[in-house]
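Action item from last meeting closed. Structure (324 res):
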């Protein structure tokens, strides 16, 4: 089968398209003919050996797929021919055939294409975890999201209202990304330059209830300043590179919280949680209450470019690699 493979840790540009044997199913595996695979920022980090998970070389890139079940265990909830989306759990996705554990495979709602389906699980369930579980989003609250035109960012814009937010403010670096943020459902969009003053003005000085931050870096302290009393700053990632520090007197003085939100860790330590999340998100997708992503598509031959677009900050929305 054809696959996008990393054999040296030299960044996205070193991803190669190779012919390798199809994977041999392990007990409990669902075999999927892959139509599309999602790209996420951890894929960038893994091409340099900088992510917490470091698979042995060579490895196949990507952690999520959508496709058609070729073969499933007899007691599985899916069977041959079903349209599904699945987590391969970081690695082994961008290939014509992928394996996923039964409990990480879900039937794709009929109204969602396979290309869009490949862009759902990783980001949407991260955002669901962030807002519902770690952020304790209450009805009508205001959510601000950094990197709002990125993968996690556009998921937040697509989902926040369906999960109860009254207002979703997008922070983006360019006018082009502002357009993407609006198209994905942002109530308000502000540019990174001067974002704090703009948000204070938008909220009449009150601030926001939740900041969802996949970016980190030097905007972190301003994120704390942007919170209303009782507000929560969700630490989701560090695409800016620098890991910020926090002076805890700021938390005390303004009654605000900084909350870590690592979805993968929670899923692995809480059996059944992923299925609970899907049971809540799937009906919202099927009913059109959460719009599916509208991904930027790259053919497998250009998998390196697809991953590089997240690395060089040109990606907008979810990026998906197509295999069939
Ligand atoms: N905690 C979790 O459970 C979890 C789960 C999934 C992903 N994540 C993390 O969330 C983060 C975002 O992932 P993603 O897939 O949404 O990435 P993405 O699609 O590449 O979006 C990231 C955004 O970060 C901003 N950014 C600021 N400085 C950047 C830089 N130097 N390089 C690249 N982007 C920069 C960009 O927005 P502007 O140009 O508008 O600033 C970009 O749109 C990653 O750190 C990822 O590891 C965490």
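Sequence:
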């Amino acid at each position: 089968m054809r696959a996008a493979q990393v054999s040296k840790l030299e960044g996205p540009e070193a991803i190669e398209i190779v012919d390798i044997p199809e994977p041999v199913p392990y007990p409990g595996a669902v075999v999927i003919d892959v139509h599309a695979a999602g790209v996420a920022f951890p894929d960038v980090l893994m091409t340099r050996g900088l992510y917490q998970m470091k698979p042995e070389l060579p490895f196949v890139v990507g952690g999520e797929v959508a496709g058609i079940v070729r073969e499933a265990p007899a007691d599985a909830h899916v069977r041959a021919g079903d349209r599904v989306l699945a987590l391969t759990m970081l690695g082994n996705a961008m290939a014509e055939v992928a394996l996923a554990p039964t409990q990480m495979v879900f039937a794709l709602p009929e109204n969602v294409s396979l290309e869009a389906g490949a862009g759902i699980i990783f980001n949407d369930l991260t955002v669901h975890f962030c807002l519902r579980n770690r952020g304790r989003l209450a009805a009508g609250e205001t959510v601000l999201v950094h990197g709002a035109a990125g993968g996690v960012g556009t998921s937040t814009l697509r989902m926040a209202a369906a999960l109860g937010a009254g207002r979703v403010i997008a922070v983006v670096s360019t006018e082009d990304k502002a357009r993407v943020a609006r198209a994905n459902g942002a109530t308000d969009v502000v540019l990174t330059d001067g974002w704090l003053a703009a948000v204070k003005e938008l909220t009449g000085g009150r601030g926001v209830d939740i900041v969802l931050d996949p970016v980190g870096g030097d905007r972190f302290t301003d994120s704390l300043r942007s919170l209303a009393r009782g507000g929560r700053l969700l630490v989701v990632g560090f695409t800016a590179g620098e890991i910020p520090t926090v002076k805890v007197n700021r938390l005390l003085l303004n009654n605000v919280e900084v909350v870590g939100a690592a979805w993968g860790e929670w899923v692995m330590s809480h059996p059944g949680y992923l299925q609970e999340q899907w049971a809540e998100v799937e009906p919202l997708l099927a009913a059109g209450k959460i719009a599916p992503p509208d991904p930027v598509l790259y053919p497998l031959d250009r998998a390196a470019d697809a991953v590089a677009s997240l690395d060089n900050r040109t990606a907008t929305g979810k990026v998906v690699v197509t295999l069939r």
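Note appended to the action item: The mean pLDDT is 97.
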